[in-house]
Every structure is written in structure tokens, then in C-alpha cells.
Amino acid sequence: MSKVNVNKVVVAYSGGLDTSVIIPWLKENYDCEVVAFVADVGQGYYELEGIEAKAIASGASECYVMDLKEEMVAQYINPTLKTGACYEGKYLLGTSMARPIIAKAQVEVARKVGADALCHGCTGKGNDQVRFEGAFAALAPDLKVIAPWREWDLVSREECLDYLEERNIPCSASITKIYSRDANAWHLSTEGGVLEDTWNATNADCWAWTVDPEQAPNEAEYVTLKVEKGEVVAVDGEAMTPYNALVYLNEKGAKHGVGRIDIVENRLVGMKSRGCYETPGGTIIMEALRSVEQLVLDKTSFEFREELGVKAAQLVYDGRWFTPLCNSVLAAAEELAKDVNGEVVIKLYKGQAMATQKRSDNSLYSEEFATFGADEVYDQSHADGFIRLYSLPSRIRALNAANKK
Amino acid sequence: MSKVNVNKVVVAYSGGLDTSVIIPWLKENYDCEVVAFVADVGQGYYELEGIEAKAIASGASECYVMDLKEEMVAQYINPTLKTGACYEGKYLLGTSMARPIIAKAQVEVARKVGADALCHGCTGKGNDQVRFEGAFAALAPDLKVIAPWREWDLVSREECLDYLEERNIPCSASITKIYSRDANAWHLSTEGGVLEDTWNATNADCWAWTVDPEQAPNEAEYVTLKVEKGEVVAVDGEAMTPYNALVYLNEKGAKHGVGRIDIVENRLVGMKSRGCYETPGGTIIMEALRSVEQLVLDKTSFEFREELGVKAAQLVYDGRWFTPLCNSVLAAAEELAKDVNGEVVIKLYKGQAMATQKRSDNSLYSEEFATFGADEVYDQSHADGFIRLYSLPSRIRALNAANKK
Amino acid sequence: MSKVNVNKVVVAYSGGLDTSVIIPWLKENYDCEVVAFVADVGQGYYELEGIEAKAIASGASECYVMDLKEEMVAQYINPTLKTGACYEGKYLLGTSMARPIIAKAQVEVARKVGADALCHGCTGKGNDQVRFEGAFAALAPDLKVIAPWREWDLVSREECLDYLEERNIPCSASITKIYSRDANAWHLSTEGGVLEDTWNATNADCWAWTVDPEQAPNEAEYVTLKVEKGEVVAVDGEAMTPYNALVYLNEKGAKHGVGRIDIVENRLVGMKSRGCYETPGGTIIMEALRSVEQLVLDKTSFEFREELGVKAAQLVYDGRWFTPLCNSVLAAAEELAKDVNGEVVIKLYKGQAMATQKRSDNSLYSEEFATFGADEVYDQSHADGFIRLYSLPSRIRALNAANKK
Amino acid sequence: MSKVNVNKVVVAYSGGLDTSVIIPWLKENYDCEVVAFVADVGQGYYELEGIEAKAIASGASECYVMDLKEEMVAQYINPTLKTGACYEGKYLLGTSMARPIIAKAQVEVARKVGADALCHGCTGKGNDQVRFEGAFAALAPDLKVIAPWREWDLVSREECLDYLEERNIPCSASITKIYSRDANAWHLSTEGGVLEDTWNATNADCWAWTVDPEQAPNEAEYVTLKVEKGEVVAVDGEAMTPYNALVYLNEKGAKHGVGRIDIVENRLVGMKSRGCYETPGGTIIMEALRSVEQLVLDKTSFEFREELGVKAAQLVYDGRWFTPLCNSVLAAAEELAKDVNGEVVIKLYKGQAMATQKRSDNSLYSEEFATFGADEVYDQSHADGFIRLYSLPSRIRALNAANKK
């Protein structure tokens, strides 16, 4: 493949080994200026400390660090949560939800610095390449896209380290790295190593954030979440921003071993992979939102919300965030969430987050209707007629069959 | 409402207070012979001990006890499990799945004894009346149906006890009964009492089967399930019938506090109710089946299975078992389950059942494809073309928008 | 059933035989003041002429006529059309879409006159009773509802006429009325008579609006519709209000026999019925909207729009307009319709309305991409990679199977 | 791209220009034996006449012609029809349904002759390449696949003709061919030429099978179809095989201009294209099947069948025939079709096929239930209770809202 002509490229830079190699590689192979872009999505202090200097040392002409934490939770995670999205029944989409906002911010940097290309460090076997490039196609179809992992010949960490050493670019990365990890405020994912055989159980190394449930406190702890329009607005009596609520709940959840998932999933690119995901605060929030929905959504609305969740999980996982279809599904969920107001107490204990108390001013639950023998709203005799009409097709079908005999 | 004319009625008899009242009430009010029918669906020894004598003592002319345990698991529960059905995201349908087989067996008894009517003891506010009468409409539209709770004036346990006392019918039922419970081999449900206020947490009395997770063993325990065509065929190396596997796993699960659910749900009859459900073995089985699916189902198949699960949960909950639609959904799930073969190890610990190891001869997971840089089946350069075509509509849409500016 | 206590009731009055009987019947049986409410939804001049005097003559204390035509098309029909709703694949929901706005306006009149009850003239076997009472439950749960057809003993037109004659209430209704009809600006429905046997073909009497296609002009005629955000905004070059566009297209369509449907459908109340529907302008509009969608919606969006159409058809037919679920589905469709802009030429000929030309500034169709051998956006070699990844699960599955042999 | 090593390849041969070029091109570029395979799917006498000699003259070592007509209708079309599949609301999938059986037969020939590769003549911009290669991946993942159009440099008919002339291979193809066409027993598709601008109306040349509705007979004609388990088994009183029934109805339909569709559709490969489709017999069959369903399917079953139709259309169009998901969807439809028995009269007139009479022994329609004031099965008073329970959530929600004011 002949290389495209590039003047200035903005690379999504993480400070890790591969993106450190990408900077000099881009300069050498495309003879272009390289601008580093770092998205702060809550991956943590150690990941970000000194990252600008590191980027410059690797050869970037500039390095932009953008704090996307509040926006990510408010504009990407919260709308997704209203759909109830949970990929293949388990995965809370931590990596998936972060990609669109990173791509969008990267495009903004490209526009600002007048770049004509975008570059990411995703491998050619994963979902993230599709998510980044899908977003780029929607937001900046005029910009070229460079995906070094699909282009270069480097195939191991050792070769990458050699590459940097030959160029005297300092790098603190170790030669062996057993697991591939991705972290943000919502989750931490782990792939590789022992996980590559699905018949292997995980070991302690596979988990990097949450306490092992078996080592978690013997005493349960309770948190109380206040929900408005399908979003957490306060925890334990204190109003919090979306991001701050998440951080607070992450700490509580992690302490009690909440939110560990070990899953084999279908990647968008046709293969399966196994990942361990830790989503401590997110797991608590999901339990809380679903619990308020139990009080508020009627039967058919709840069923549709479940269908929206299945759909939204696919769309978000598949990198279709910036599409009319995703907007449509989110709009439907937003509408259903209008009444999702209430308060929930969640018990945290040895890996579990379980709602123990729930209430809502919009609750359709009524002690009176559900239990008393007689009330004004519900008359038991109504059931007679309901059942007759409800089962009428079965009756006619059976009568038909009997007549034919 | 003028009473219909009835000669002989078969009543679904449980041995509890209400059905004990129903027998004499039917005789007095319909001047008919009453045949008692007891379905053994695994509700347990104490519920069934001496039940025939009790029915006769209450005035029944005959009492049929039918053992439906194996058939229930094999013909009703297993097909439902293949769909992944879980009502409103939580409830494993324990009561719902038992109703169709009970109704079907009741109709068979009615045919055998030449009855012209069927009677059940469900209240006028619940789902079970619809499930029974929906099944009756499909299976025996010619038989009359009597639902005493929608007809008589008795509104309290006290009145029911008085009713029996006046007629010298012995009854060991207590005057107070806080909770309403339903048990079978799959689950035990609890409603009423403290649960009636959704802001009340459950207390120890709300749970009658499983150990409190906080009292469960401090040591985790592991069970290994072998799955063939979406059904558990062996546990811990031993081939078992569907019912026996369930019993075995119930004991393991109950010991570790597995399978407790506290949910507010939408009843079919328009109101909400709160229930505590204990499904120890079932929760383990669901985790195992879903885990094998992770290995075996491709992306679009998995998504469809999730949609089938949402649909099937509604159908089963709503008493639509004996309908063409339910048959259709079950047939679709049966087809998908053809490849769902494998083995799963489940860890039981303090209320959780979590798959830790899984394998399958049909696994689409391949360590080689997922991880190596290069292989014969997956070439990273393929991703280029995939992404271009995959995101083509986004690209054209964005180019259109740019052109319009 | 003991009658509820009513002071003042607002009755949805049509001027026809049954609602003419209902007025005196309400006064006699509820000893209350009766206010007539007439909704002008475009049912036509002859239906509405002199209707106020007629209502008063029948005993109403007042009669309110409200012109709902523009609001019905703009606020009820247009949002529904964006979903593509077509009940059971055929029926364009003419009666269904009119009911919610009539019920809402009736409640407004009730509030204005201080009524404590609402009354409708729907029979006990149809959908409309559910649509009216469903809307009343959502909008005015405090008001009582009277449904005379489920209450009184009158069972024939003759008895109704006798009832009026005994009370000296003038009525021009004839003793025989073969068909039951419902008309508004969107459609005219016909039930009964010869249609009651599904093996009877329709005859000329079954159709009351459109020209028989066999009698329609031998020359085709063309209309050009301009669509913005999924709504018709101009026809044949002239900007029109939603209602005026519909009237204009009704005339064109009716002349060419467009929009006749003869269907057996499932009523909400469990039975089937047969209806002939004439929707001349609506059929043209549907063809136009779907045609613009062909240009604008991408593959997955189009599929979702089709699913929304199936859902919305059920919701609207089933009288669930004023529910969160309906709002949610409409919001999703509204979002998808944002790009549905364009122009369509429709050919009208002998019963058919067929789009012959279509264009849109938002079109994703590109002559260049679709046909040329090479272009900048689409490179044929991309297809290689796409197909490999797309069919990867099939390949792995087949390799697995081969390995097992 | 380096060429793979091939010994013997089976090419899907049509006798047209491109596959005539492909045979010598394969021999030259892969230095391999080329076996021609011709699928007779009802494309017609002129397409097939002398085709074996032509293949040999072009350089094929052998030519296999397989008659797939009955199998295609019975095993591929009929199962699809039960789902109601209609791609993007219009297209009856004529090309899509033929591809899997052709690919399957081609694989069978490859196995028979010991070939190690398969070749098709589909372009790199279309759906068919995905359909063929998707089937190959599922049925013969070990065989290599050659797609000349994605490989060679020929870009015009002229170059193809020159290619043959240089090699002295006779060819009767003309230098200009305005339209690209695909024909089989079910349909004939036309793309290209004047159709490439969506604002162009079609002209007479765009249609190659059916009579222009404006030239069709002025007298309507009627056909009667007998349907069993969702399949046409007899027409006009005569039992016919699936293929023969289709041929018979094609003739009738074509004569009356039935089954013309002009659509812009989303291709699987991300772009849109426009096609004219003629499906005369198929359109009649669809109308007949959907009409029997109107009598037989209850409300929820009908809705599910519509959802299955949307899904199946995508699967078939997208070349996913040989997948577990497709099997699952077909199994669901097969189940629903069990009761789809009946008889339908279809009126053919000036481009329309409209059911005028229908009946079924399984009909859930009952004149008695739908019309009389009173009957044994349906009591109008039942509607009271039905509506109360049906609208209970709306009522509670509205009462809640009122209480909050």
C-alpha cells in the first residue's frame, strides 16, 4: 500500500509503549509533524503524570491533554445507562463508551492545529480501530487516518523497545507485559495472559482494581443513590456531579469487590475474545437505575427498555455512536427515563451490589392495589372479563380444532 | 352473576387453607361432585404428606396426586432456559413455568373422571388466574371454569377458618400467615408482610430456602456442569436427569446463599407487586448455559437469543405457554441451542454463582485468532476494508453535510 | 351493576342514531345534565351540518363542536407516519389515530363545563371503547366513564328508533343500515353487510369514497410531494398545511382509486373483524415518505425504522397513545426523520400510487459509488477484508465441524 | 496481492461476457484447470441454450449444468416466504434467495471434481460477492476463493471483448449493454442505465418481463391459490409442485403487469443502489400467504411474524443463509406457518394483485363473534374488566401526577 501524503497528524497518545513508538514512526514514514493528544478519561494519575514531557521527548511537536471526565460521564455514559445497555448480557461497555468522546476530542485538536490526518494505536484485531475510525468517518471524513498496527512490521514489545532504543528515545516500559489493559473512570479491562485459555480460571493478577470478594470486608456496607430522570444526582445524601458520584461509588464498590466480570465476548471484527472487566461504581449505578425502573416503568415500557438495551449495547460496542440510529435509540430511552426518579439503598457485600430498599414519587406500585381484597381502582371482578378477552384467540383456536375432529 | 350448572369439578388442590375451603364451598354453591387434583412439582414432602386424606376429609370424592417433577423440568423449564428468559431482567419465572403443566395435568384428570368444570384457588389480583384460565382456554375450551376468589365473599383467613369450623372440617392452618408463598423444584417465592412497603428491606423471615449469604460458608465451592444442546446433562462428572440435576444444584446453591432476588415486578393484570424469589439451582444453571453460549454463539445469534429471552419471559410470565407464538419462540431458541455444548465450572461463594472456567468443542473462540499478530484465518489488513465499508454510510453522510455548508 | 352517581356528563356525539339515543338515555338513567361534544376531524359537511340543533333537540343542554382537523394531522397523524406504522401490514390506522385527539378534546370540554363523567357510543366488541377509555384513564382518571352499549338492553336499530319515537325525539336515521362506517380526513372505514363472510368479495357498495380502479381514468396522473423532516410540506409546488395537503391528495387519490384495502384484522379485544378501508391521500403520503427514506436512511436505520413501524402500529391501534411507551417510540422515529428531506413524484393509475422519481439533498445514494469501477470513497479491494471478517464466524464454525470429523 | 496456488477451480458460469472472460483469465493467471458450473434456477431457455459448448469453447475442461429449480423454490424460497421477508419494505429478495443454493451446488461440484478453489463473477461493489463467499465460508472453508473482478484490471465491456478477441474465443456479447440484469424463476432485476439517477423515471426498457400496467388487459382476471402450512400447493384447482405453481402464476402476473418494484436500497457493502425488480408470480403468492395469515394468526403471533419478516429479509439479503441465526428465524416462522392453511382468490388488474376472497378451516374469524350483540364466547360485559386492567398503569400514573399537584 502506497503511503498517503500527510503534513501534520494528531495521534491519540497514551504514554504507553506503542504510542511512544508511533510518534517517531509517523515522522519517519510520513515525514510529517506529529501532535500528541491525550484524553483524560479518568485513567488515573500514574498514567497521566509527566505525559506531556514524555510525548515531546518522543518527538511530538506539541501535546494537548484534555480533561474529558465530566463530559464522558454526563454525555456518553449517562445516556447509555438509560437504555440499560449491557453487551451480551454482562459487559458494561467501559471501553466502548470512552472511544467516541476521545475520537471527537481528537478531531477537535486536529481542526485546531490544522492537521490533515488522525492516527490511533489500536491493533488490527480489535474493536477499537473500528470505533475510532467509525467516529472519524462521521466527524471528519476529509481527514486521513493512519493505523500503524495495520501497517508496520513490528510484532512484539521487544521490537518496539528496540525501535525506541535505536532512536535514543527514553521509555520506561518493561519488556514483558502479560496483560493488555484499558482504564477509565468507569472501568478497567484486562485481556491476555492466563485468560487466553477459557478453561483457565482467573488468578489474582487478572484483577487490578477491585478487592477480591473473598478478601472484602465481612461487614456489609450500604449506599443510597438518588436518581432523577434516569441519572444519579446524589449519593448518601450529597448532591454530586456525574463524575464525582462515579468516583465515590467506585471507591465503595472496589472495597467490597463489586463489579467483576469474566466474559468471552464476540468482537465486532468476527472473532471472540476473553476479558476481565472491573466496573465497581458502574455496577452499583446499574443496580440502582434498574431498581427505580422497577417502580416506575409499566410492563410494556419495561419490555421496550429491555429491547433498547440490547440494541444500544450493540451500537455502542460496535462504534456506531455518531449515527442517526444511535441517536434514535438514545432518544427513545431518554423519553422513557423522564419518570425514572427515586431513591435506592444498595447493599455492598463480598462482590455483590443488591438493592434492598427503593421508593419513588412516580411509583406505579401501590400497596393498596396489590394486596387488599378490594379497592377503588382495582375490582377483582374485572379480571373475569380481562381473562376472557385475553384468552379469546386460544379459545377460538381450540374450539376450531375440536370442531374438526 | 348467575352460577353455571356443574356436575363434577376438578379442583387444583394444594392442601392449604383456601383450597380446603374451596372444596365444601363448591359442593354447597354448585351442588356438584368435587375431585381434588394435586400436582407434585417438587414443592416438598411436608406440603404433600397426607394430602389425599386431607382432601377427602374436606369433602372431595377422590384425590389424584400426579408426579410432574421430571416432566416439568424436561418439558417446560429446559425449553424456557434455552431462550434465556428472565422476566424484567431479574425473575427466573419459577411460578410461571409451573402453571402450564399443572393446568394441563388438571385437564387430563378432568377428562379421566368426566368432569365438566375446572376450579383453581388463585386470587383475582394475580397472574396465576390468567395462567390457569389461559391454559384451560387452549386445552379445554368446553369445560367451565370456577374461580372462587373472584366469586365468594370471604376476604380474610379468619373467615376461611370460621367457614371450615362451622362445617367441622379439620384444618391445621394458623389464623395468621404473614407471607404468601409458592414453592416448586425450581424456586420459592415470598410475597406480603414487610415486603409490601418497597422502602422496607427484607428481613430473615422473607427468605425460606437459601442460607443468608452473610451466614454462608467462608470457603467457596465449585460445581462443574456439562451442557448438551442447551441442557444440563451432568453435574460434577455424574450424568443426571434434568430434575435430579436441579435438586443437586439446589442443595449446593442454597448452602451458599445463591439465587436470592428481591424485585418489584409488573403483573399481567396491570398492577405492580413485590416478591422475593429464591432459585438456588436455577441461578447456577442459568450462569452455566449463558457461559457456554459465550463460547458458541456468534454475535448476531447472541443478540437474537437475547431478544428471544425478552420475548419468552413475557410469554411465559403472561401464561401464553400453549400458544403458537410461544411454540415459535421456543422453536427458534431450540435451533440456536443445537451447538450449545460444553463444560463450565461455577464458583459458589456468599450469594454468588460465577463461571470461572468454560470450554466447548463448538467454541468459536480461538486463542490463535484472538491474540497472535498473524494467522491464516485472520489477516489484520482485512480490517482496513471492513472498516471502510462498515463506516461508508457515516462517511457519505458527513461528506454530504460538508458539501452543503 | 349499580349505576354510579353523575351530575353532568359530556358525550362524544356524532349525530348518528346511537348517540342520539344516548342523550335521552343518559338523562333518564343517570338523572344528569348531558353536554354534547362533536369533534370535527374531517368527517365531512353532511355529517356535521345542523348537528348542534340536533343535539339540543335530543336533549343536550349544550353542544360544543371543535375543529380538530389541522391538529389531528399535525400532532397525531404526522408523528405516526414517521414510524411507518401500518397495522398488520396493511391498515393505515385511520380510525385509531383519530381517537386520542377526540378523547383529549372531550376531556377538555368536560373540564370546561365542570362535568364529572364522560360517555362514548362505542360498542362492547370493538377497539374504540378501549381507545377512548384508555385515553380517559391517562388524561382524566377522576372522571367517571359511561359506556351505554355495554349497559343498556337495546340490541337493534329498530329498538333504538322506537326509543326515540316514544320520546318524540326527531331522527332521520333509517331502519336499515347495512354497513358500519367511520370517516375522517384520513380515511373511511366500512364494516358489516356482505363483508361479514370473508369468502365474499366486496361489491360496489362496500366502497364509499374512492373511484373503483376499473372506472378510474385511463390516463395516469402525477403528483409531486416535498418532504421535510418526514412530513409533507408542499404538493405540486405549493406549500400547504398538513391538513390541506391531505385534502388535496385525497381528491387526487380518490379519483384514481388509490388506497383501497380489504383486510381481516385482529382486534385488541381478542376477536378478528373484516374491514374495507379507503385512504386515498394517506396512501400517497406513505409512498412518498418511504421513498425519501430509501434515499436517506442507512441499512441499520432503515431496519430499526421498520421495527418501530411494527411497534407503533400496535400502540396506536391498541389505544396506547397517551403512554410513555408511545412517546418513546415516537421520539425514536422523530430522531430518524430529521434527515428525511426530499422530493418525490408519485404516479397515480388505476388504484396504484407508485413513486417514479425521488431526490434528496441528504441522499446517501451516489451514482459514482454505486456504478463506476473505481472512486475515491469506495475501493473494491475493501470488499476482500470486509467479507473475510463478516464471514469469520461461519468459517470458524465450519472449520470446527471439519476438525471433529 | 500474491496469487494463491490453485490446481483446479470451479467457476459459477453464466454464459455472459464476464464469466466467459473469467475462464481463460483463470487459466492464464492461476495456471489451473477450470471447470464450469451452471445453475439452472429458471433464468430461461435463451440463457442456457448451448451453454455447455460455450463453456468448453472458452476453455473450460468440463461443464456441469444442474437443474436447481424445484429445490430452489421448495427449500429456499418457500421457507423464506413463511417469514414474510420483504427487504426494506419492498424487495422480494429474488437474487438473494437464489445465491445460497447456487453456492451450495457449486461446492458440491467442486467436491465431485476434486477442485481446490471456487470462483464467482460478482463485482467488488455488490452484495453477491458477500453472499457467495459467505456461503463458501460456511460450506467449504478449506477451498480457496477467487473473485476476478476484485483482482483484474479489466474495467469495461470493451476491454473484456478485446480480451476474448485476442484469444480467439468466440463471444456473441454486444459492446454496449445498458442494463445489468439477473433472472431466475422468481424474479428479474434490472440495474444501471437510466436508473442511475434516482430523479429519472423508469422507461419501457427498464422492464423486461412484465407487461406495462397501462398496456395490461382492461379485464381483471382471478386466480385461486390453495395454501397449506404456509405454502402454495394448488392453483386454480390444480395441485402443482412449488416450481410449477410459480411458473403458472408468473405467466398470469406478467400478463397483468403485476409485481413491478422500483427501489433504492441499501447494499450490504455500505452503499445504496437502485433496482427495478419484476416478481409477477411472487407478488401474487405473497398476497395470498399474507391473506391466509390474516385469518389464522392471532394478534401477537402476527406481530412476531412481522418482526421475523424484517429479520429474515436482512439475513437473506445479507447472505447469511447458512448460519444458525437464519436457521433459528426460519424455524420460528415454520412453527407459525403450521396453521396457515386456506384458500384465497386474487384479482389481477393493471399492475395490482389483491385478495378478494379468503377462507380457512383454521380461521379465528367468526362472523358470530364479530358482529352479533350477544354470543356464548364473547360477552360485551367482559370488555369492562378488560379495559380496566388494560389501562390500569395509565390510571395509576395519572392519579400519581394529580396527587403531586
TrEMBL record, chains A, B, C, D:
Chain residues that bind L-citrulline: Y91, S96, N127, R131, S180, S189, E265, Y277
Domain Arginosuccinate synthase C-terminal intervals: 179-396
Family affiliation: Belongs to the argininosuccinate synthase family. Type 1 subfamily.
Biological process per Gene Ontology, one example term: urea cycle
Presence of the UniProt keyword Cytoplasm in the record: yes
Organism taxonomic ancestry: Bacteria, Pseudomonadati, Pseudomonadota, Gammaproteobacteria, Vibrionales
Known catalytic reactions: L-citrulline + L-aspartate + ATP = 2-(N(omega)-L-arginino)succinate + AMP + diphosphate + H(+)
One Gene Ontology molecular-function label: ATP binding
Organism domain of life: Bacteria
Residues where ATP binds: A12, Y13, S14, G15, G16, L17, D18, T19, S20, A39, G121
EC number: 6.3.4.5
This protein's name: Argininosuccinate synthase
UniProt subunit comment: Homotetramer.
Cross-referenced InterPro entries: Arginosuc_syn_C, Arginosuc_syn_N, Arginosuc_synth, Arginosuc_synth_CS, Arginosuc_synth_type_1_subfam, AS_cat/multimer_dom_body, Rossmann-like_a/b/a_fold
Protein's cellular compartments: Cytoplasm
GO-annotated cellular components: cytoplasm
Pathway assigned to this chain's UniProt record: Amino-acid biosynthesis; L-arginine biosynthesis; L-arginine from L-ornithine and carbamoyl phosphate: step 2/3
Coiled-coil intervals, chain numbering: none
Main location group: cytoplasm
Arginosuccinate synthase-like N-terminal domain: residues covered: 8-170
Gene: argG
Binding site for L-aspartate: T123, N127, D128
Keyword ATP-binding part of the UniProt annotation: yes
Key words, A-Z: Amino-acid biosynthesis, Arginine biosynthesis, ATP-binding, Cytoplasm, Ligase, Nucleotide-binding
Entries under Pfam families matching the protein: Arginosuc_syn_C (PF20979), Arginosuc_synth (PF00764)
